[in-house]
Structures are given as structure tokens and as C-alpha cells.
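The aim of this short unit is practical: by the end, you should be able to scan a pair of folded records and say something sensible about each. We start with the first protein, listed as its amino acid sequence and then its C-alpha cells.
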Amino acid sequence: MKTGIITTDTYLNHETGQGHPERADRVSVVIENLKKNKKLIWKKPSKFDNKYLKIAHKSDYIDEVENSFPKKGLHFLDGDTIVSPGSRQASSDAVASIITAIDSVQSKEFKNVFCPVRPPGHHAEKDKAMGFCIYNNVAVGAHYLIEKYKLNKIAIIDFDVHHGNGTQNIFYDNEKVLYLSTHQYPFYPGTGASHEKGKYNNIFNIPLPSGTNSNEYFDAYNHLLKKIGEFKPEFVLFSAGFDAHINDPLANFNLKSKDFYEITRRTLETVNKFCNGKVVSILEGGYDLEALAESANEHINALLKY
């Protein structure tokens, strides 16, 4: 079985305004780079049932978002989360991509899948847009696995340099989902302390200081691997942010591009015996274009190999 890439070009129409770090060429550089790899299979997302969006998010919030998309110009959902007329389809297609990816892995069409999409999702809470995120793509995916496929053990691994407050918020009291995060702390969004453990000890935060280098990161990541090995997930979702890279302008970690191969490799070696290789990854952050393209490519190379 092959590694799949699921995305559409509607991300281009999600406009965030001049100078905004979450811009369309983030995804464009990733896609252009991955198209050089002839081992990958490309697919577009299918439509999905809106009810899965309403499991992850409150109905009032979904209505608020739907009513916020402007007919022209830009509208601010919060101080840095912006929507434009094209954001309606782009945000829907981002969610559709992870759902289609899950179906493709469950049906054995693909071994695993990466979704290079935008807007990102992991800061979006049940009832609040935040940090460039409108809908929490990975959270909708996890709920989809629970509702459609009746899975009871889903792991979400978030290696974005910013803590996924939204994903933690959505699953804080859900024993079927283990959320694991490595992130810079204290830092935006202010959550992610080690004592935030969830109602069922299902939240596992590894806060790390500014300046964390590769060796320090992997010493910490071993604790995450031990926790996920104890959990024995049936399916693994990656919130794949690449802004822990040393060149990223929005954070202060010192990882190299090749470290994202190693993060992925070590994770797959730990979880494959439990989940039979069932992994879907979705793009979150990463704001230096060259570093983002290189790091995503390293992530994909590990998905291809394992």
C-alpha cells in the first residue's frame, strides 16, 4: 500500500491579508515539493456529513462561523484569525480532507495519508476560533473515527511548537482520545502545562523551554513514546506543525528539518504494532517556507518507509 496525499486547491482562496504569516504559499511550497516524489498518490477530498463538525464544535459556533464569511473583503474572527469569501470552501475542504484520509486508510486504499491543507485547526476550541484556526480538523477526524468506525483508542500527536489548546479543550473529558503534545512553554497560547492531564489522564503535555535543541527534544519525546505505547492506539492522527524548526520566525525551538523524519520514524516504530500502521497526518503550523517544505518532505519520507 502507498502513502496518499489528500488536498485541493481551494486553500488558495482563503485570504488572510497582506503580511499575514498564515498564507497560501505555505501549502503551495509543500505541494510543489511533494509532487517531485513519484511514490505518492494524490487524491481530492469527498463531501462529508456536517454532523461530524457538530460533534467537535458547538452548533452555535458553527452557525457563527457560517455567518461570518464575508461577501467581499476580510472579516476577523479574533485578533489574528481572518476569513474571506473563499474561506468557507477552504475550511470545509480542510475538514473533508482528514475525513477522506481516514476512509482511505480504513478501506486499505492507502497505508497512511498526509493532508497539506489550510486553514490549520489545532487552536480552534469547541466554541471559539483562535490562532489562525477556524475548525479543528484533527478533532473532527478523531470524532469521525469514534462515531463511524466505533474505535475506542485514538491518539493525537501534536508536534507543532504551539500547544494545541483547541484539541485539548475538545477532548479533555474523552477517555477514547489520548492527546499528546510537545511545545514551547510558556508561549502562545498559554496552555499546555504538564499538570493539565484531562479527566481520564488522557492529556499528556510536554512543555519545553525556548531554545530547545534536537537532543533535548528527543530526550523529552521518549516520554511521549512511552505514554503512547502504554495506551496502545487503534489509530494515530498527527497534528503536524513544522514551526519547531530553527528557522521558523514565530517560535524559538532549534530543530532541524531531518528531525521531523526522526519524530515520525520513532512514533511509527512505537505504534505500528498496535494500529497496524493506520496513520493520518494533517498540516498545522510552519512559517518559514523553505524549512516548512523540507520538514514536511522528511515527515513524508518516514511515512513512506514505515
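Turning to the second protein, read its sequence before its C-alpha cells, just as you did above.
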Amino acid sequence: MVTASDRCGVLPKADFQRLLDVLGAKGYRVVGPVVRDGSVMWETVERTADLPIGWRDEQEPGRYRLEQSGDGRLFGVVHGPQSLKPFSFAPREALLTIERSKNSFASVPTLPKSEKVAVLGARACDVAGLAMQDRIFLRDAYADPYYQARRNSMFVIAVNCTRALATCFCASMGTGPGATSGFDLALTELETVFLIEAGSSEGNDILSALAIDPSSPASIEEAEANITSCAMSQTRRLNTAELPGALYEAHEHSHWDDVAGRCLACANCTMVCPTCFCHTVEETPDLTGQRTEHARLWDSCFTQEHGYIHGKNIRPTIKDRYRMWLTHKLASWIDQFGASGCVGCGRCITWCPVGIDLTEELPALLKPSIRTQQKPGQV
């Protein structure tokens, strides 16, 4: 939410190119939403015209469509399948190389090359997802150096939502639709201007370089009213008041069988989720057998191989895997990291081929099970 007028300015939409130019002059490669293959994907953005001007997305369980609205909005598309996760936790990255010598071997870490990247168009749910990834990969004294190298080079430009999708439920998760922290700049798109708020010293530097007019109380009030209206328009919500305990108690609930009968274990939900961090490692030797690359790549708890440990698969069925995913996301994640692993973006609903909706599955699991209602001796 916009709260500090001394850290805010107003940029006319007609002058939006100035923001891209200032970021470029500061050494950032700007990445933003670009229409590609029927959705929006993160791509390098050099001109305002590269953005999805006039486009908007319609999302339902198992359905995603883009359409031209002709309204001229730069950020009318809420989001596509990609969150901020790929920028800090790469889908595939080499961790080290190992080379044989005559009587020994040598291993060399392969930290990512430093590149200043400004991500333009991050939504509040994605900023919250990035903050959760920070808790996972930068926790205490055990920071992941590969994640940290990428994270340190990121400049996050959030765009506050003034339109909710049918699959959004960030308001009930306390993660949106307005970004409150974790950003360097936050934009709110109004009719003819952008309200820009700085959220860090780096953001203040960009705001100063833009040399734009300060925001007025009226523009701040309009922006906050639009964000509040967006929150109130959300039709989906997740009641987390009974978590994590109630979900642990539902471990043997009969509804797990029902959802497992629909789930394809395709892993789409975990691939698009802003917070999922399951991964595996692989070795890629060269043809001589003298050198190999040790790499980390995204994996999913929905795959059979991910549950294979020391000669036994500990999650052999789809029921086991879906239960593991949902219980971790909405219960044990709270015990581990102090917050739910769900940020209410709704991507898992949209990109599930069969439209499984966790805002429907959780309430079903928190109701008394048919099994627990049966009297002794009943089948």
C-alpha cells in the first residue's frame, strides 16, 4: 500500500520510457511481461511498446486466455505462469565442475555471473513469494551462495493490482493485492499516470534520477481505493485460522482419495508455484570421462522419483504425493518457516489441467471425514 508521500512520485504514462531509460543508464537489464505463445512471459524490455499494452488475462480453473481490451493499460495482464522464482532459484544451474588428474581430482564451484536485473511488473503475491524463498535459501548462517548471488543483483519493481482474476485469493492470505514490502519500486497504474513509491535506498536513487513530480494526496487516495476495490472483488479465499493443526488431523481423511482420483501428478502446480523449492541434482560427464558437471535443477514432490530414498519409495501413490504437497504448503511450512507456503496467486488452480482448486480442497479436508463418522463395526 502507498503510505509515504515523500517517497512517492507521479509519472505520466506518456513518459514511461523514461523509467526504462534510467534503469538502463544505471546498468540494469530490464525484464518485464511480454506476450509470447498465448501468455505473458518474462523477457528483456527495452521500449514501452514491448509491454503487453491493452492486453488482459482471463483465468479459471484449468483455463488461461489473453484478449485485447483496447484500454491502453500497460499492466492489464495480472500474471502468466512465471513468478519471480526463476530469477533467484534457477530452473537449472551448474553448482561445480569436477576434473580428474593423474592421482586425484579437483572441484571448482561455478557461481553465477553477476548481472544487474530489474524485474518490472512483479505482483504483490510474487513479491511475497520471493520473501518466502529468501527465508528458505538465505536462512541464518546457511545461505545458499548461488541463490544469494542472483538475489543480490535483483531490483524488484512491483505493480500493485487494481484488477483481480477469478483465481486470485491473495487478500485472504495477507499477501496482496498491494505490495507492502520487499520491493525497490512499486507502481500503481491510474488512468493517465503511474504512482511510483520507493521501497529501498536503491529505489530512492531511481526515483530521484527520474526527477518526477511528487504525488498528491488525491493520487495516493485514488491508488489505495483501487487496490482496496481489487481486494474486495476477489471471489476465492482460503481460511487459514485452523492451520496447521486441523490439516495434520486430516491425514486419514477420505477426501484425499477423491482428489487423488482427479490429480494427474503432472507437477504443473509445483512448477508455477512462487514458493516451491524441491530440486534434484544430476551429473553430466563429458565424453572423455575426465570432467563432469554437478548441476541442480527443479524437481517436484509429485514425481515418483522424488520420493525414492535408499531403495524405497516413501510416497508411491498420487494420494501420498498430493497429501504431502498440500500438508507441507499449508501446515508444516508454517512450522518450518513461520508462514504459509501459499501466497494466493492462484497459478496452481489456473495451470492444473483438471482444474483442481485448493480453495475447495482444503475446506473439504477440514470437514469431518466419512471414515470418522462411521460407528465401530461399520464398513
